[in-house]
Write a structure and sequence with these properties.
- The protein has 114 residues and is an alpha+beta fold.
- The chain has 2 helices and 3 strands; from the N terminus they run αβββα.
- Strands 1-2-3 form a 3-stranded antiparallel sheet.
């Protein structure tokens, strides 16, 4: 091998190294941008969850209040409606229960067939 061919290989590898360093720097920038975007999405998700929870609380109150008032106008010893929102398997589910004299009953099967 001649000095010239070794010199050419060295210059070629320096060029490859510079390209790799540039690629690494670009990828670091992409990772930083993706991390910022992830943080924004996580914050947005928390806001959506908070708004959803507040909406569920209001819905729970209004739904239970209306049904309970209707039952009071029909029955002498009425059930009260309770709605509990729970997160299961990543989704929010509503559990509806009747209460009377401090005891809770599921509406289907416990109150005259549903």
């Amino acid at each position: 091998m001649s000095v010239r061919s070794i010199r050419n290989q060295l210059e070629h590898r320096k060029g490859q190294r510079a390209q790799l360093q540039q690629t690494i720097n670009e990828l670091h920038d992409v990772v930083r941008k993706q991390n910022r975007q992830l943080l924004r999405h996580e914050r947005a998700l928390e806001i959506v969850k908070h708004v959803g929870l507040e909406t569920q609380k209001k819905l729970e109150y209004h739904l239970a209040e209306q049904v309970s008032l209707a039952m009071e106008s029909v029955f002498d010893d009425p059930y009260q409606l309770k709605v509990h929102f729970q997160e299961k398997r990543g989704k929010t589910e509503a559990e509806i229960m009747f209460t009377r004299r401090g005891m809770e009953f599921p509406p289907i099967g416990s109150a005259g067939g549903g």
